[in-house]
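Write out a record, focusing on structure:
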Amino acid sequence: MAEYQQMDMPEFNGKKILPILGIGAILFMAFLMLKKIDGGEGGVLFKASGGIDTETTYTEGYTLIAPWNTLHIYNVRQQEVMEKMEVLSSNGLKIIVEVSAWYQPEAINLPKLHQEKGIDYLHSIVIPSIRSATRSVIGRYTPEEIYSTKRDAIQSEIYEETKKILDKQYIQLNEILVRDITLPMKIQNAIESKLEEEQQAKQYEFKLQKASKEAQKVIIEAQGKADANRILNASLTPNILREKGIEATLKLAQSPNAKTVIIGGSDGMPLILGGK
């Protein structure tokens, strides 16, 4: 009959195990308390004992946080939101406007933003501000102004009005871009037709001005020639003509060509009868 051999159980040594458990617990707690904030982010600390820490914005890196506290992470980089909305012009015409905004939370005021506006500030603050400013600005202009000459002014005014709102909400507005403006097709066609007619009228006016200037030029040139002839005729007296005739006779006499010259006409001028 086989003998039953009892194996010796290792003796429990509490002095060795407890320190190991203690170190493990400390490391585990440290892991729970260590929070990472990535680049372009900011943190807001909520303390279980005292609420939001409104004095400190936690920046990128690792931060030790007590496990009973909560660290809320925000993106503090520039972000973009695009809104497409229906607004009314000054004469009540419905217009579709597409606007985008470049914005970011003010990092230094991140705790106040979290406390007063909340982490969903985009939908509660930014978008309503853009919509309100866009409706206000578009309502000042006619469809013709919106479609053609005032687009840059409209974009600038929407920016100024939106910024005025967001500056009080701890949000920095960097830019407003009017991406697209869509008018009803009938109105758009009418405006384009009107603009084309105005362009043709300007071209016709330019041609008239050009023709008028050319006519003035011809008149001035003709007047100049007439004045020159009048002055010349006034200067050609009989004595001057006689002197010129004598000069011509002397030059003719010096010419080797055969000729017949008679001096002593009624006006004293030479008469050339023949020559080679």
